[in-house]
Write a structure and sequence with these properties.
166 residues, alpha/beta, Rossmann fold, 2 domains, 4-stranded parallel sheet, two-stranded parallel sheet, 6 strands
Length: 166
């Protein structure tokens, strides 16, 4: 079994869902008392959220790369970023580590294609819905059209994510 490196903490609630789903999937596939071999680095979301809203993406990229390299050094075989928004720097992480990154847009695309769909309604933080890092990958790599909510609805969704779900 490969060792999964999880970059989490953004939010811890999201990270716990990733951990739960990964382990449930392993148990369903392998049976018995099997569970996933995981290494998780849980970052302080307060720091990350502040940097996001200050537009300090270069600093966030360095942070994410550092976390990925720590997981690589700890023996992870591949990396998962346990949040949509921080996939903004996934390419940098991928290009500066020696282990693969399982990109959330690729996993999403697999399911969309499996179901024979060509469109995706995207919900997430404003960063995820408004910037191209997620939409562009789905469009260019998989020819999947991405639809986002209106500006007012995006504001409401972003507020729910940061103020109710995190």
């Amino acid at each position: 079994m490969k060792t999964i490196g999880l970059i989490g903490g953004m939010s811890w609630e999201s990270s716990s869902e990733y951990y739960r789903i990964i382990n449930e999937t392993v148990r369903e596939r392998l049976g018995g008392l099997h569970s996933a071999e995981c290494i998780m680095y849980s970052a302080d979301f307060e720091q990350i959220e502040n940097l996001q809203h200050q537009g300090k993406w270069e600093e966030l990229t360095k942070l994410m790369l550092n976390l990925a390299q720590k997981l690589e050094g700890a023996g992870a075989d591949f990396i998962i970023i346990c949040t949509n928004t921080m996939h903004k720097m996934a390419e940098e992480v991928e290009n500066n580590t020696n282990i693969p990154l399982l990109h959330i847009a690729d996993a999403t695309a697999e399911k969309i294609i499996e179901k024979g769909l060509g469109k995706l309604g995207l919900l997430g933080t404003n960063f995820t819905m408004e910037e191209d890092f997620f939409k562009k990958r789905l469009d260019e790599k998989y020819n999947i059209e991405v639809i986002i909510p209106s500006q007012n609805d995006r504001r409401i969704i972003d507020s729910v994510i940061y103020n109710e779900l995190c």
